[in-house]
Amino acid sequence: MRDNIQAVVAEIGDVLYGKEEKIKLALTCLLSDGHLLIEDLPGMGKTTLAHALAQVLGLSYQRVQFTSDMLPADILGVSVFDTDTSRFRFHPGPVFTQLLLADEVNRTTPKTQSALLEAMEEGQVSIEGETRPLPDPFFVVATQNPQSQMGTFPLPESQLDRFLMRISLGYPDPASEKRLFTGGDPRAQVSAIRPLLKPEQLPEIKAAIARIKTSDSLIDYLQRLIHYTRHDSDFSIGLSPRGALALLRAAKTWAYIHGRSFVIPEDIQALVPAVVTHRITPSANWGDSGEHALVTQLLNAVDVVSPCAT
To answer: Residue 296 to residues 229, 265, 286, 303: CA-CA distances in angstroms?
Structure first.
């Protein structure tokens, strides 16, 4: 099954050039039962990644373009009166899919953003007094433009915490960009991607991930990282227990993808930027340096080996 995972990464890499690590992060997020937030400028390949991931895993796919005038019913669905039966009939919204691309989610109002909260946390939605389950798996890939751009509404902390990871794709390296210029349109090639896994195979993979081992020393290292974020003066808000569990869950998946049956400190270190950055708040001492610089400081400050053990 791990060979299939590597094939999935390679297949998506044929349409999203030079972004192998980002592809692995997205796949880790999905297999960890999380949701993914991609923050980047327009035109960086966010939609291509989401659509390619759905294609290669054989998942149903819907894309919603968020706008300032969008209402919750535009996402969740609405009941319409059927004159033939004299009854209201529910018309499901685009949220009833296995992979939902919420494009430019921060261009809509907080009221509409919050419509995704129950869906992302519970895998269900409550509409007109009735709870309706969502497909399994249910994976949200949301994109947002930098808040410096006009017409954006910041995502509240409660919504940010629903995302297991926040990543940025960034500009392509020169070799990948040359390949982009000389080849065909990657987005046009996405529809030709062949499914390499089936949705019904995902529970088996997740069961194998759950069996990935973690040593006492590894848990001690994780706890030192958590403690540092909660008690060091550089942090205004540290990592919550839910955020810490998310990091550990993702580290197990990352280890599985890389062919190991146990988690090593490098797995945690590789995921800290994606899993932790949007869950912490720098103190006023950091000014405009931001969360990414603070995460770097965190990884440099906390020893992998406990000082008591040396």
So the answer is: 12, 15, 13, 13
